[in-house]
Amino acid sequence: RSAHTSNEPSAQITDCVVPTYFECFVDIEMVCAIRPPSPVARICGRSTSFLALYIAIAAVHPVAAQDTKCPSARDCNAPMPYSELQSTKELPKIVASAGISDDVKAKLNHGHQAVVDFMGGVKPVNAYIFEQGGSDAAYEPMRSIFCDQTTDRYGNCQFDSQVQQAQNGGGQYFKGGGGMKCACSHFVETSAALYYLPSASDTAQFVAERAVHELCHAVQMKAGDNIPTWLMEGGAVQME
Q1: Per-residue pLDDT at 71 exceeds 70
Q2: What letter does residue 43 receive in the DSSP assignment?
Q3: pLDDT beyond 60 at 20
Q4: How far apart are CA 62 and CA 104, in angstroms?
Q5: What are phi and psi for residue 33, nearest 5 degrees?
């Protein structure tokens, strides 16, 4: 990602370059081709004329190719330093189980709207809200949308585990796994997912406050997952 201070969307990874020239001089901002805003040229301290020379040679000898390589295996919450989330004024799409009232949905939208009005929103984002203690049938209409977005590279969809948590009492709120792909040995977030599992004692107003918190995380993640936890959580709480 480029370092910039404009309000334009953060740089997003598209293709990787397999360098055949000047390999030792080219850092990640040159190895991975990115969409606007343009990256800051940083090639071993050399001037932009060196960058122009590299681009000129690359134009004559094309070496760019789509690279969908994933990072090496590791435990949960691997870094996801690139994002395809886009700025928007649209609200997240609410995907709710059958027993979620219109009032709770309205309060969820109210919380999301507060974030969009204050700092802007991002898309695509789905907001999944699971009622507490519902029957299997109450959640089932959510399954296809949930799994279409969140199934991981191993073919796993965590829908049933979310249903089980909701049936066991709920009380969990978080920005969780959304859409993801791999490029240049990194994970790339392609869409965001917000998870709302209110408990029986959680009011609609409380859900609205959590909606502020969780959508704030999605907006933060538009810049990629390199934000320290204290800043992400502190910022989201401050937004509440």
Answers
A1: yes
A2: B
A3: no
A4: 54
A5: -70, 135
SS3 labels along 154-221: CCCCCHHHHHHHHHCCCCEEEEEEEEEEEECCEEEEEEEEEEEECCCCCCHHHHHHHHHHHHHHHHHH
Phi, psi angle pair for 59, to nearest 5°: -65, -35
Nearest to 108 by CA among 119, 117, 96: 96
| Pairing assessment for the beta strands 186-197 and 125-129 based on DSSP bridges | parallel
Residue 117 has pLDDT above 80, yes or no: yes
Interhelix angle 229-239/102-119, rounded to 10 degrees, is 110
Confidence of residue 17 (pLDDT cuts 50, 70, 90): very low
Q: Which helix (H) or strand (E) holds 34?
A: strand 32-34
State the pLDDT at residue 8.
Answer: 44
Crossing angle for the helix pair 159-167 and 143-150, to the nearest 10 degrees: 130
Could you tell me the pTM of the whole model? 0.72
Overall residue count recorded for the chain in this entry: 240
Q: Is the separation of the CB atoms in 93 and 105 below 8 Å?
A: no
